[in-house]
Every structure is written in C-alpha cells, then in structure tokens.
Write a structure and sequence with these properties.
Elements (H helix, E strand, L loop, with lengths): L4 H9 L15 H11 L4 H17 L2
Length: 62
C-alpha cells in the first residue's frame, strides 16, 4: 500500500466532520511533532484519522 500524503492533505482541506471524539494515544513525541509539522494547516488528528481509515480498508480487502 502506498500512502500519498499530499493527496490526503488536499482531500482533508475541504473539511469533513463525523463521529469524532477526544481520544488519547501514546506516541513518540518527536515523531508526532514531525507529523504535525508535515500536516501544515490541516489538523494532525484528521490526517491520522484518514491514515487509520486507509489501513482498516486495506485489511478488509484481504
């Protein structure tokens, strides 16, 4: 599976809301900061949510 970060950011820039709620995760601080910076103006949580959805979709295909 190939991830296209620019495509994800473009799709999320139009904005979408759903069944979102506050959730806690334990992540590497350095990795999260680099990820957040790479997300630019798009909230990191939305990008992470999209990556998680792609992962779940790819598992369902097998």
């Amino acid at each position: 599976m190939k991830i296209d970060g620019k495509d994800i950011l473009e799709r999320l820039s139009v904005g979408k809301k759903g069944d979102r709620e506050k959730t806690s995760l334990y992540l590497s601080k350095a990795l999260y900061e680099a990820f957040r910076k790479a997300c630019g103006d798009i909230p990191a949580s939305q990008v992470l949510e999209e990556l998680m959805q792609q992962f779940v979709d790819s598992v369902k295909k097998k």
